[in-house]
Amino acid sequence: MSRAYGVETKMKVLAICSGGLDSVSFLGKYIGKDMEVMTFNYGQKANTETERLREICKFLNLPLKIIDITFMAKLWKGTQLTDDTVKVENEYTPSVVVPLRNGVMLMIGMAYAYSIKADKIIYGSHTGDIGTFDHNGHTEFYYPDCSPIFANSLTEAGKAGTFLCDKKVELESPAMLGIGKLDLVKLGYENLGFLLFRTWSCYKSGNKQCGKCESCINRKNAFKNAKVEDKTEYDN
Questions:
Q1: Residue ranges of the chain with pLDDT lower than 50?
Q2: E-assigned strands of the chain?
Q3: Which of 197, 192, 200 lies closest to 49, judged by CA?
Q4: Are the CB atoms for 174 and 125 separated by under 8 Å?
Q5: Radius of gyration of the chain (CA)
Q6: Is 26 helix (H, G, I), strand (E, B) or coil?
Q7: What was the pLDDT predicted at 159?
Q8: Distance (Å, whole) CA 178 – CA 193
Q9: What pLDDT shows up at residue 9?
Q10: What are the pLDDT digits (tens) for 18-54?
Q11: What are phi and psi for residue 189, nearest 5 degrees?
Q12: Burial 150-188 (b: 16+ CB within 10 A, else e)
């Protein structure tokens, strides 16, 4: 519970969620809170994730807003997730990054959060997303817009763009709390149980997850390392 002028008020949370393992697991941390869920159709190949999220939210009785920004697919060229001319790979390459995707979605979410006077926005970026590698002679984060540095900058931008008397909307992610994928899966399984196996991690769509793309491999390893029996259905 948060306090305003000495009176207890109920925390209001907006969860930005894809329907994937990470964001749904972190959503589980706030089950029981006054929470709304927001997701985006951005022309992604893995549009099954939206249907899985709809199913999960219905089971949990959580209101879900699906925001249509499919026009962005025409702008996000050269990435595995939206560009049909780019092959989905079985290991990480920079082409899996959709430029500033989190920034676009979080800023839309922030605009809504300020309008409903929410306390915080949560999303699923974890510490594994901000590991570093050498890219063209520079040390880079795997997913730059998953970093706490980026989140803190967005938080300040949101406050700078609203009235001083408005309640500041905080951003929170596993990465900002120092949580990696292994502990995130444990957290999700503890709070959501079987629903975790209804999440969709695959970069493709279909009746089953492919089991071979980088995201599917990461999913398999996360359940294995967390010592949680993986009941996900894969093609391979």
A1: 1-8
A2: 2-4, 7-9, 12-16, 34-41, 64-68, 120-122, 132-135, 138-141, 170-172
A3: 200
A4: yes
A5: 18
A6: helix
A7: 95
A8: 23
A9: 55
A10: 999 999 999 999 999 999 999 999 999 999 999 999 9
A11: -65, -35
A12: bbeebbeebbeeeeeeebebbbbbbbbeebbbbbbbbbb
Query: What angle, rounded to 10 degrees, do the helices at 214-225 and 181-192 form?
Result: 70
- The two three-digit tokens of residue 142, written as one number: 């795997």
CA-CA distances (angstroms) from residue 196 to 24, 106, 188, 200, 215? 7, 23, 7, 9, 15
pLDDT number for residue 8: 43
In the block, residue with structure tokens 């995707």: 101
Neighbours of 29 (CB within 10 A): 21
CB 233 within 8 A of CB 221: no
Alpha helices in 116-180 (DSSP H): 148-160
What's the CA gap between 229 and 226, in Å, rounded? 9
Nearest in space to 66 (alpha carbons), one of 85, 53, 76: 53
pLDDT at 10 (0 to 100): 85
Q: What is the C-alpha separation between 142 and 129, in angstroms, rounded?
A: 6
CA–CA gap between residue 20 and residue 52 (Å, rounded): 9
- Helix axis angle for 148-160 and 101-115, nearest 10°, is 40
Instruction: Copy the structure tokens of residue 221.
Output: 């390893």
pLDDT of residue 6: 42
**pTM score:** 0.94
How far from the centroid of its chain's Cα atoms is residue 12's Cα? 18
